[in-house]
Amino acid sequence: FHSGEREEKCIIEDVPSDTLVIGNYKVQRWDTHKQEFLESAPGLGMFVTVTTPSADVLLSKLYGPQGTFSFTSYLSGEHIICLQSNSTRFVAFAGSKLRIHLDIRVGEHFFDESVVQAKGKVDEVNLRLEHLIEEIHHISKEQNYEREREEKFRKTSEETNGNILWWAIVQTLILISIGIWQIKSLRDFFISKKLV
């Protein structure tokens, strides 16, 4: 995505509890002379802030023009990840455009092939098995989190349906009472005018 030099950009990532989140980014600065983005932005860093669903700051750190940040969520829900350059220019002079390449991986445990090649075949099978077990635990956490969200949504839907039912009953009672009042008023009117 593109960003201004002093502009803060935030993304929302829905993360289950106790899950590792790894983010890789790279910043490129617009060169007005060449009319293209430079491969890197030397001297420019990124300030990364991660906020939990309960508005607690989980991570707040300054990184270089290219880097990796990681955090482990302790609450399930929407985590806000914000990136802002550490440019020291005044806002009026900070007109440079930035291109930020961001890759976020949720719950991923990296599998290091070099470690596997250095060990024997039995160790390779053990490492792959451990990696698969970690993946199964992650999938299980994701499913539990989705179940919790579905249960919360179902409760909200049932409460809304109950409220709609009571509103319909109240409207019906109001309509019936107004109808009875109108009939009584017309009857009293006709009796007073001696039409009945």
From TrEMBL:
The record's InterPro entries line, in alphabetical order, gives: Emp24-like, GOLD_dom
Q: What is this protein called?
A: TMD11 protein
* Protein family per UniProt: Belongs to the EMP24/GP25L family.
Localization, UniProt: Endoplasmic reticulum membrane; Membrane
Q: Where is the GOLD domain?
A: 8-106
Membrane topology term: Single-pass type I membrane protein
Give the transmembrane region(s).
Answer: 164-183
Q: Name one Pfam family in it.
A: EMP24_GP25L
* Domain of life (superkingdom): Eukaryota
Per UniProt, what is the name of the gene that codes for the protein in this document?
Tmed11
PROSITE patterns from the UniProt entry: GOLD
Cellular component terms, GO, for this chain's entry? endoplasmic reticulum membrane
- Which keywords are on file for this protein? Coiled coil, Endoplasmic reticulum, Membrane, Signal, Transmembrane, Transmembrane helix
> Where does this protein come from, organism-wise?
Chloroceryle aenea
> Which parts form a coiled-coil structure per UniProt?
115-142
Task: Name where it mostly resides.
Answer: endoplasmic reticulum
